[in-house]
Specification:
446 residues, mainly alpha, 15 helices, 0% strand
């Protein structure tokens, strides 16, 4: 596999498109729910998003962990172990599926209350949570197949599957919410059917016998399963942390501005999912070629890939923020079907403040994935934990206490910029070359 600019563009562009499509699951729900159910519907959706983030993150953990291991072994000429890796990934998928289904059957009401839903939005939030949990097998398997097939040399098929699922979700959202008048149930069913459609597309890789991996009779290996989970853990941390942050932000904003404030944050949180997916797409797109170069011991290619990724991230960050700053009002209006003046007044400055974090968040996502793709699990986990939990929660409580809603919005860029600065100072050598030995993290692990 070549690791030049052409190959970088091929993998990242396709994956960015696919990830934008994947994030469209929730964005489509946001738009159609805002039109059909108003501010309360938006608030209910935002209260339920953390569970979706956790399921999505679990799928990414299994997919990225297993596929990265698969890619490294393949580049080291050990293809015989690929079936064992894929099979153990499926075993882990079955375990997590059982946990999610159990939760969906017996605990949706308790989780809805735990997330802070009041009487006004409780029923809608509970329905969304319950269906998402019961359809978790499709979400998990879809992510696993997307990651493995991408690493099996078919990034176009992975991208096409993600986009097809997203388009189907948008179409079904409209059908279920408006002609069928199914409300929040229609929105969540549209989201739940999307990965099933994507899996059907991905099955073409096996039908045409292009796959170099398949399920086998391999026994469950605790050591291999642990390795898969540790490599993929940063992806879970990132997604789970975003869900926890949404829960905490919802609680803070409920006290400051009530359900309207939560609805305003729902618009921003869902925009953030789409924007973050762009950088996640770049990061995941570079993973196959990074893992291949690492497996071959090609340090020059590793440096070049990281350089391409960071330059692309900085350029896109500037363009995205300029667009959001100029179009904040019209963007909020799209999701404000009731023309709620307070929602508009909260969300517009929120967009302008919150998304100053874009370049820093992009940098952190890229570098965390770079470490994970090269098998350096500890630094990847530390970056993900620091930006997702260890810093943003105390910063959010502190900033909201002193600066109200402006403090809530600023807590995200403050956190991301601190982590970026710490990462640069601690992981990148002074000569500016990409990290290669990670002595800092090794010392801190002892």
């Amino acid at each position: 596999m070549k690791t030049g600019l052409k190959e970088f563009i091929r993998y990242t562009s396709l994956n960015v498109l696919g990830m934008i499509g994947l994030s469209g699951y929730i964005l489509a729900d946001t738009y159609f729910i805002s039109k059909g159910l108003g501010a309360n519907g938006l608030a209910a959706l935002n209260l339920a998003i953390p569970i979706y983030s956790f399921i999505h993150g679990t799928g990414l953990m299994l997919g990225m962990g297993g596929a990265t291991k698969y890619a490294i072994l393949k580049s080291q000429k050990e293809p015989g172990k690929s079936n064992q890796v894929f099979t153990n990934t499926l075993y882990l998928t079955a375990v997590f599926t059982a946990i999610f289904i159990f939760t969906g059957i017996f605990l949706p009401g308790k989780i809805t209350s735990l997330f802070g839903a009041n009487k006004t939005v409780f029923t809608m939030a509970k329905i969304y949570l319950e269906v998402i949990l019961l359809f978790s097998p499709a979400f998990l398997l879809n992510q696993v197949l997307i990651c493995f097939i991408r690493n099996d040399g078919s990034p176009k098929l992975s991208m096409f599957a993600m986009l097809t699922g997203s388009l189907a979700n948008i179409f079904l959202d409209y059908i279920f919410i408006f002609p069928f008048h199914m409300g929040i149930l229609g929105a969540v069913l549209a989201t739940a059917f999307a990965p099933i459609i994507s899996i059907c597309i991905l099955s073409w890789h096996f039908i045409t016998k292009k796959n170099k991996f398949q399920p086998s009779k391999a026994k469950f290996s605790p050591a291999l399963a642990g390795n898969i989970l540790s490599i993929g853990l940063p992806s879970l941390i990132t997604e789970t942390a975003s869900g926890i942050v949404i829960i905490v932000f919802n609680m803070i904003i409920l006290k400051l501005q009530g359900n309207t404030g939560v609805a305003a944050y729902g618009v921003i949180a869902n925009l953030s999912l789409v924007i973050t997916s762009i950088f996640t797409g770049i990061a995941q797109g570079t993973q196959p070629i990074t893992s291949h170069a690492y497996g071959n011991g090609d340090k020059n290619s590793l440096k070049q890939i990281l350089k391409y990724a960071l330059v692309t991230t900085i350029t896109l960050s500037a363009c995205i923020y300029f667009f959001l700053f100029q179009m904040a009002g019209p963007i909020v209006s799209i999701f404000n079907s009731e023309k709620n003046y307070l929602l508009q007044q909260i969300a517009i400055p929120g967009i302008k403040l919150y998304f100053t974090a874009i370049p820093f968040a992009g940098f952190n996502i890229i570098l965390a994935m770079y470490f994970a793709a090269t098998g350096h699990v500890l630094p990847a986990q530390m970056i993900s934990l620091a930006r997702g939990l260890l810093f943003i929660l105390p910063v959010a409580f502190c900033m909201s206490h002193f600066a109200g809603m402006a403090g809530v919005w600023l807590s995200f860029p403050i956190t991301e910029s601190i982590i970026t600065l710490a990462t640069i100072l601690r992981t990148l050598p002074r000569n500016g070359t990409p990290p290669s030995n990670h002595r800092f993290f090794a010392q801190n692990a002892k």
